[in-house]
Amino acid sequence: MKLFTVFTSVVVAVACLLQPSDAQTTIHLRVHTVKTSNTCYLQCDSGKYCPNGASSCQAPPSGQCFNPAQGVFQTKCDAGFKCDNGKCVAELPICYLKCDSGKYCPRGASSCQAPPAGQCFNPAQSVFQNGCDAGFKCDNGNCVHS
């Protein structure tokens, strides 16, 4: 009798596994495709750049500068950037010094500094500013999420 019970249980279990349920019949697969912008990944010599859609390195056309963030040549660099060797670069370099608590190294500086009176350091822009942006507060001279 025990063997019959075990056999019946196995048959019922197999039958349940082989019969699709509602959840199994409604499975959908999503296929996500992303179109690329034909980004050029060539390593170019100094002063030459490979814009999107190109297959070779090029010197900037006369009066233009390469914007690496967008992969295009343009006539003028965005605010806060300058054209150097045919490429748009930050006017003031980022300072990577590790500073003591309450001191910060803003963009363009070469040493750690305490914030000027009434100002707070904005780490997202690497500058001292009056107060902090919405959603942030000044803590120990540094803008932090409130």
TrEMBL record:
SUPFAM superfamilies registered for this protein in UniProt: Growth factor receptor domain
Record's keyword annotation contains Signal: yes
Keywords: Signal
Signal peptide bounds: 1-23
Signal among keywords: yes
UniProt protein name: Uncharacterized protein
Source organism (scientific name): Peronospora effusa
Lineage, highest ranks first: Eukaryota, Sar, Stramenopiles, Oomycota, Peronosporomycetes
